[in-house]
Every structure is written in C-alpha cells, then in structure tokens.
Amino acid sequence: MVFLEEIFRKIARRYELKGSLSGTMKLGQHLDSGELSTLANFFGLDPLRVNAKEEVRLYFTDLLRNGSESQWLIKIGDALGYPIEQKKKSSSNSESIKNILASLLLAYPDLQNLIAALEENPNQLRTMLKGNSRESVKETCFKTAEIVTFLTNNKKIFTVSDLGAHFYNNSKALRQGELRTLLISWLALCRPYSDYPDEAALLAEYHVIHDRLTVNAVLYGPVIYEKNGIQYDWIEQLYRAGEAATIGWSNMQNMDKIYFRDGHSNSPDLITCENEAPLTNLIQQKKNSCLLFTSGFPSSAVQKLYQLLAPQAANCYHWGDSDPAGLRIAAIMHALHPLRLYRCDLATLQRLHNHLLPLTQKQKNTCMNILNSHPNFPFRKELLFCAENGWLEQENWRAG
C-alpha cells in the first residue's frame, strides 16, 4: 500500500540519519478512518497519538514495548524490500541541538514528552541558533523549561507580567516577542490533547491570566464566607431570592472560612454545570442544591471555589456535554475532589441514544488519544460509549 510505504520510507530515513528509533514522528495529518485503521493494524494503538491539529504521531518508546528496535527495522525493511542501515551525517547545528536537548532532559526529566517533540521537529531550535551562540540558546531553553515546569505544577493565579518579573526581573519580558512565542509553543506541546482557540485559552489552563479583575465564578447556593472577623452573606441572600452570585477573584482572597449556612448537618449537593442555559434551568429545578457554573473549562476562580466547598457538600456532581471536551471538564473537577456524573452518565446516554450527536473526526481523534494515553481516565465508560455512539449535548437531556 502506497500510504504505508511512505511511512516506512520516512522511518527508514529517520534511522539512517539518527541511528536510532527515538522520540516521536509525524505520520500524517487529517487522516481518514481507513488510514488510521491501517496504521493501528501495523503499529498497534498504543504508540499512536493524534493531537489538536489532527497530526498523527508515532511514539517510538511505546512502539518498542512491542518488539526490539532491530525487529521493527527488519519488519519495515522487509516491507520496503531493502535493509535499513544508518548513514553517517553530522552538522554543527545538529550537534548543538542534540546537546541542548540532552542537557534539558537531564535537568528536566518530567518534560520528556516536550523534549521528544522538540527532537522530532527541531526547526524552532535551528532557527534560534542562527545568529546566536549555543550557550545563549541553551540558557533561553533552560529558562523556558523552568517556567514550563513551574506552570505545570502551578495552582495559583499569575499574570504574564508576574511571570516576567519573577523569572526575568522584567514584567514586560513575556508580554510579546520571541520569549513569549517560545513559551506558548512549549506549553502547547505539553497539552497535546486539548484544542486551544487562542493563546489566552492555553495560558488560562496554567492559571495565567491577563488581569485578576476579570477572573470570576458564578455560584448559586446558601454560601457564607468570613474575612477579618466579618461575616458576608450576600451570596446566600441572592440564593434566597432565586438568583446566582458572581464572585470575583478578589472576593476569594484572604478568606478566613467559607461554608454552607446549615453546615455539615444539612449541607446541600454541589453540582457543577458546564453551560449557561442548563444552569439557568437547574436553578429552577434544584432549589436546594448549590450550583457552580464552569462556563466551559473551569477558571481558577471556579476551581478554587469547588475545592473549598466540595468537601462540605452532601454529594458532588458534574453535568456537562458528554463529548471529549465535556468529559475532560468533569475529569478536571474530579481531580480536585471526587464527583459523579449527573445527567451525562452512561445510563443516561444509553437511555437517550436517539438524541446523540455524531462526533467530528477531531473529536474521534481526541477520544482515541485519551483512551490510549490515560487508562485511568475517571469517566472511561462514558468516553468509550461516546466514541462508539456519539455524544449528548446538555440541552438534549430530558426526563423520562
């Protein structure tokens, strides 16, 4: 098959130049289901990934779990009709890139996937080395890796200016320019299964925002908080009036405590809700529950409120779309405090089978990536059902 032969030749060229099968390699983009099946039949599912750009990548580390390097080279060489052997080729830039990436991997082993992606596509580093010394490029890469590592483990709100001031002693360092571009591209490589419409959405996942004043959460419930010995019950008052409250990030700073009016003895259920229209309906239907609006992927304020209130709630639930994005939102909240699915669980999806929407190819790719890469994904049954049958939009839920 011509399609597979081109893949095999690409792998052969890679080995001939590098002398090993390592890192990852792009096999194609926007492939149809037949081509994906062909790849899966030859390489197996585990080594294959499809990212947000619908690029299909082969992860050699996973591939070599199903056979040694020499076995795969023989198998591919037999298909091509000639043996695959290494060719000696070197260049100063290639050696510099190799040394930089090796040093990065030694210093930041947790960034293995990022470094593998840079090894597969070294054009960015090659461009940086034009007109710059290897040491200056290495210094820039190490600083960027330091920031990426910091943000990967970060749970607090930061602005881009904060990051610039902290890591470069210059608040403007990451607002624009090459350093910002490098950071954005590396953060994106660390999130291969998410689709980001813009830089702001990507940064927000790492709790990096434009300004703190625009970060808020919408909450409906009998909630009271205390600051400096003063009790604030305005959220509860709005709840008694049947209205939701908008809580800014500044409201949540330096709280002494936050709790439900009746405490643990009679605490309500806490339901997080992905979309606005279903939330509005819930306010009418679940008057005795506490409702938290995620507005799609949850902001830092939403996550903070959930972390504070979830341990006090009678039960915790999430209601969202059952597509890959919706189930990833549920998984984000579940990681903060365990919850169950509400109106989008497997039994509901099976009951409302006739109201499911078909997945796009991009959504199918995302399903495959999550199922292959995250065997402990908390809502795996729902995701499998979604991959095979389609997804339920929140607005399509109905009782019965």
Number of strands: 14
Q: Which class of secondary structure composition applies to the elements?
A: alpha/beta
The chain-level mean pLDDT equals 88
Percent helix among the residues?
40-55%
How far do the termini sit from each other?
A: 50 Å
Beta strand %? 5-15%
Number of helices: 19
Overview of this protein structure:
The protein has 400 residues and is an alpha/beta fold. It contains 19 helices and 14 strands. It has helices at residues 2-18, 33-43, 60-63, 69-80, 92-107, 112-120, 123-129, 134-152, 160-168, 178-189, 199-205, 234-240, 249-252, 276-285, 300-309, 324-336, 346-351, 361-373, 380-389; strands at residues 24-29, 48-50, 55-59, 158-159, 208-209, 216-220, 223-227, 230-232, 245-248, 257-260, 270-273, 290-293, 316-319, 340-341. Strands 9-6-12-11-13-14 form a six-stranded mixed beta sheet, sandwiched between helices. It has a three-stranded antiparallel beta sheet with strand order 1-3-2, sandwiched between helices. A hairpin with a 2-residue loop joins strand 7 and strand 8 (230-232). The protein is flat and about 75 Å long.
Notable features of this structure?
about 400 residues, alpha/beta, six-stranded mixed beta sheet, three-stranded antiparallel beta sheet, 19 helices, flat
Describe the secondary-structure layout:
Layout: H1 2-18, E1 24-29, H2 33-43, E2 48-50, E3 55-59, H3 60-63, H4 69-80, H5 92-107, H6 112-120, H7 123-129, H8 134-152, E4 158-159, H9 160-168, H10 178-189, H11 199-205, E5 208-209, E6 216-220, E7 223-227, E8 230-232, H12 234-240, E9 245-248, H13 249-252, E10 257-260, E11 270-273, H14 276-285, E12 290-293, H15 300-309, E13 316-319, H16 324-336, E14 340-341, H17 346-351, H18 361-373, H19 380-389
Parallel strand pairs: 4-5, 11-12, 11-13, 13-14
Antiparallel strand pairs: 1-3, 2-3, 6-9, 6-12, 7-8, 7-10
Helix pairs in contact: 1-4, 5-6, 5-8, 8-10, 18-19
